Please model this.
Amino acid sequence: MNFKKNDIEIIYSRLRKHLPGENEFAINHLMETPKYSLVKFVLGEGNRLKALISAGIHGDEPSGVEAICSFLENNRFENFADVWELTFLPCLNPYGYEYGSRENHEGKDLNRLFKHDSPPQEVKFAMSIFDKYYDLTIELHEDFMTPGYYLYQKGRRAEDDSLGEKILQDVKNIMPINLNGEIDGCSAQEGIIIPENDFESMDWWPMALYSFFKGTRRCLTLETATKFSMAVRIEAHLVAIDTALNYFSRKE
Ligand SMILES: [Zn+2]
Model:
């Protein structure tokens, strides 16, 4: 029998409390079965650079959800408020978050269904957020097996390839990097996995490849290591987000 491990409403009320305006906790898309709200909010609406930051698509990876709360609660947007419009999807799998399961209530791994003909409602909701162009998308995950932090990156401009390295350089002050030559069945270099180029022929897409397909300049999937404490995992993600946002806003 399943027992609730977390309460998504606590997360939503923490976020609501720290949002600059009541109205900005926007577009609650209510799932009918089971009854959960899928939530998005936007900071810095109308700013020149656009990023989408999402978490909790795997329900048993709570550090990304916590990192988004912490980003808001500690005013980390302050440094970016002139340049960035940040759209947040704080928890894409609220059922999984509550019950500590990777999959949703139907037993589906949502991050495998972004090429599906009739995707689940959580995936449909995430897809609907791509009605605009993003310079950057960041997905926050965690991995139970990894000895350290690593990331996937895919982008349209080779000049941005250095971003992955920059992120890991900063993160390694918080958490070691996974330097294995193979991570999660993919070949990796210094903690960076570059998904294959022939993504169109894949049978399934994760959210990052859907993002790339929709034209995003740089797509990042960030993986923190569950073996470290929650505080360390959160800090590692926050440092990675800072570095990624700074990379674009300082350059242009
Ligand atoms: Zn994950």
Observations:
- The pocket of zinc ion is lined by residues 58, 61, 141 (CB under 6 Å).
- The chain has a mean pLDDT of 92.
- Residues 230-251 form the longest helix (22 residues).
